[in-house]
Structure formats: structure tokens, C-alpha cells
Amino acid sequence: MFYAIVINEKGTNMVMDNLPTDRHGATVAAEEYAKRNRLTVQGVYPVKQQQKQGQVLTKNSKQRRATLGHR
Questions:
Q1: Strands 13-16 and 40-46, bridge-based pairing
Q2: The whole model's pTM is what?
Q3: Radius of gyration of the chain measured on its C-alpha atoms
Q4: pLDDT tops 70 at residue 70
Q5: Can you give the pLDDT at residue 62?
Q6: Are 31 and 23 in contact (CB under 8 A)?
Q7: pLDDT tens figures, 12-27
Q8: Which one-letter DSSP state was computed for residue 12?
Q9: b or e along 30-60 (b: 16 or more beta carbons within 10 Å of the residue's beta carbon)?
Q10: Could you report the per-residue pLDDT of 30-69, keeping only the tens digit for each?
Q11: 71 has pLDDT over 60
């Protein structure tokens, strides 16, 4: 998943999404769209994935480890 930032003639930034899933395809699609609409591509960037949350089973971890034979 990628998005592109394009700049119009007035200098305002716009974000393009719904680009192809590979970087090369996303770059080509963004450049073609920009050329058709007289825009300048500033860059193509990967979408930041959802950050992993903390572990679920942390409340009684010492007790679980003792009963499972750890240490």
C-alpha cells in the first residue's frame, strides 16, 4: 500500500491514495496522473502499518511460567 504527495500549480499539496500495491506501479501511476493533470509528484511513500499493541497475556506471567515448567 502506497500513497503519493503531489503539488498543484498554486503550490498546495494533495495526497493520492488507491495506488497499486507495488512501489514501481504506484510511482508510474502517480507520475501518469500528475502529467495528465499538470501536477508535480513530490514522492511516493509506503502507508505506515498499524503498530503492534502490547502483549495480551502479561498480567500473571510469572505464575503461568511457574506452572508451565519454565525455570
A1: unpaired
A2: 0.65
A3: 23
A4: no
A5: 75
A6: no
A7: 999 999 899 999 999 9
A8: -
A9: bbeebeeeebebeebeeeeeeeeeeeeeeee
A10: 999 999 999 999 999 998 876 666 666 667 777 777 776 6
A11: no
> How many alpha carbons lie under 13 Å from residue 61 in its C-beta half-sphere?
5
Predicted local confidence at residue 64, as pLDDT: 72
Dump strand ranges (E) for the chain: 2-7, 13-16, 40-46
Cα separation, 70 vs 50, in Å, equals: 32
Residue 45 has, within 13 A of its CA and on its CB side, a CA count of 10
19, burial (CB in 10 Å: exposed 0-12, middle 13-18, buried 19+): buried
C-alpha cell at 18: 488507491
- Cell numbers 500528475: residue: 34
Look-up of cell digits 488507491:
18
Question: Where in the chain are the domains?
Answer: 1-48
